[in-house]
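Quarterly update, task 2.4: magnesium ion-bound model.
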Amino acid sequence: MNSSATLSPSISAGISDPGGPLPERPRPTLLIVDDEEGPRQSLRVVFKEDYNLLIAADGARAVELAQQHKINAAVVDIRMTGMTGTEVLEKLKALQPTVEVIMLTAYETVDTIRRALRLGACDYLNKPFDIATIRKAVATAMERHSLTDEICSNNQKLQALQSELHNQKLQEEIARTRGEIYASIIHDINGPLTIISGFIQIINQRVGECQRLEGEDLEMVKDRLRRITRQVSNCIDISHRYLNFMRQQGSAAAWINVNQILDDLRELLNVHPSKGSNRLKIQAVAENVELQINGTDFIQILLNLAVNALQSTPTPHAVDIVCKVLHAPVDAAQFQEGPHERVLNNEGFKNAAPILHVSVCDDGPGIPPEVMTKLFKPYFTTKPPGKGTGLGLAIVQRLLKEARGCLQIQSKPGEGTRFHIYLPAFVKR
Ligand SMILES: Nc1ncnc2c1ncn2[C@@H]1O[C@H](COP(=O)(O)OP(=O)(O)OP(=O)(O)O)[C@@H](O)[C@H]1O
Ligand SMILES: [Mg+2]
């Protein structure tokens, strides 16, 4: 037994110097790993004319060689002192996944051979082997390697092409929608700004009414300032979201608690000018449910739908926001497009339970069929000039798509409007 990790000097002449000048047509490299001198020598003689040979007398040397040279195929003895052939196989595959490995076996059990095949060995030969058999096995391994190599390089080219195409498409999309994005930023920031302006008016009024700010008045001003600060952070969040989008950096959304967002929504809507004398009811969800969506995005979706519902008519009316957790997927038959119903992002919807269902319902005038078809077109509005930009629902659509949610709208003139949002959720026990 020879367990030395060195390349035998007697055979080094048959091994090409990897640092030397490149032959015209590079020969494939074959690694031979055996701790017995006899088989090593005979394999060298058989293959020295056809391949660059790397020869190792034990596993450690084989790994070392694989770290230094690109290897096409290897012939590895299973039974060796020190590192076993199966361990060498595992290490070779980890270093060079496309290397083809033929195992040499003597008295191994079927289990050992099976394990080697499972680890990616391409063939196994019983010792002693005849020259024709080993030549054929190595030639097949070399052929397999060059095929795998070709597939890998084609795959890499394809991936590079795909990502280039994707980038180009994204650039075009951004260029095309740039104007819309800028308008969306202004639209989204307008919500928090309206609320900030409302709080500032209240503060001004209170400050103007009293000589000195103390006690209850001081507390009230402090509270309003806190709320203003919160809205200012909302504005910053919104602008970050769009900046990330323009830079094409999707920010990974954290899990958000639904009832916390509903509390924020209640606070925002109660001071929103469109609330007026309308009756607004927001019903929290009974379970402790979370969503994987940016908190500002979720509040933006709800705010847009709620403000639309509150603004649907100047006559006092009711708006109800109700949240429920669905413990089974939504029945697709429930989504029917028609003059009084629209469904958005059904195809991109991750319809797997649990799902959060939020409905925003009003008993306003309802939506006529000719308006139903245009609802999500950017800049479409039926509001008087200066009152609406027509971007609210286009933004809702985009945010829901990003969150893999779905939107259903049911409305008939004279029968009010119901917006249903479905979003993949997580219920905390
Ligand atoms: N609950 C609703 N009841 C009646 N009509 C609605 C309702 N929600 C939306 N609409 C109709 O959809 C149109 C588009 O809504 P969208 O939110 O996109 O823009 P907007 O509300 O007009 O403008 P902005 O959102 O910028 O204030 C509205 O102008 C209105 O005609
Ligand atoms: Mg709107």
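Highlight for this quarter: Residues 187, 304, 308-309, 312, 362, 364, 367, 371, 375, 380-383, 388-394, 417 surround adenosine-5'-triphosphate (ligand 1) (CB under 6 Å).
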